[in-house]
Amino acid sequence: MKNLFYTLCFAMLLVSCGKDGSMGPQGEQGEPGTANVVSSEWFPAKAWNSTLSSEITARYTISQAMLSEVNASSFKSFLDNGGTFMVYVRRENAYYHSLPFTYGVATTCDWALVSDDEANQFRFTIVNRNGGAIPDALSDHTKLELRYVLIPAGRVMNGVASVNGRQVVVDELKTMSYRQAGAVLGWEE
């Protein structure tokens, strides 16, 4: 029995040693993840550049480095090719909102592409639809911070925080709260 064991071990050693073979076939596609999803850090809101009390706005530039990470030559081309852009607002380091949102009854907050193809900018706007003053909680830019996310077209998110671990499509991500989206995208606060 002992001889049989040694013979088998010697035979396995001979078979396992030798010339390397050719590379095997490629494995199956892995689970979708958040590759190429890029998000900024939180950054302070800029001073408003509007003189109206019922509408305030500020412009923000998306760096070419961030656009390159999602294979976009410009912010406009990123959007034109089906990319998703999401903006979050944090007030006083405690209240989180995804744009667009309504504050109170008549005040809306939203973003829009600045139309210049080369600008790589978006405009953050707050409007009181009734023509009244913007509430103090939003009009003081020093109490606001922003964060944005760029998601290339066709991405499916790994459903880390979703029900039963299922995959999340981008349209679902847009409807999630900041914390839910952060769990899916792997943000840490």
What are the key terms here?
189 residues, alpha+beta, Elongation Factor Tu (Ef-tu), domain 3, five-stranded antiparallel β-sheet, four-stranded antiparallel β-sheet
Q: Any overview of this molecule?
A:
The protein is α+β, with helices and mostly antiparallel strands and 189 residues long. The chain has a domain at 34-154: Beta Barrel (Elongation Factor Tu (Ef-tu), domain 3), CATH 2.40.30. 24% of the residues lie in helices and 28% in strands. It contains 6 helices and 11 strands. The chain has helices spanning 2-16, 64-69, 75-80, 136-139, 170-175, 178-185, and strands at 38-39, 43-44, 55-61, 84-91, 95-98, 101-103, 107-113, 121-128, 144-151, 156-157, 168-169. The strands form 3 sheets. Strands 1, 2, 4, 5 and 9 form a 5-stranded antiparallel sheet that branches. It has a 4-stranded antiparallel sheet with strand order 3-8-7-6, with no helix packed on it. A hairpin with a 7-residue loop joins strand 7 (107-113) and strand 8. The chain is globular. The protein starts with a helix and ends with a helix. Residues 8-18 and 159-164 have low confidence and may be disordered.
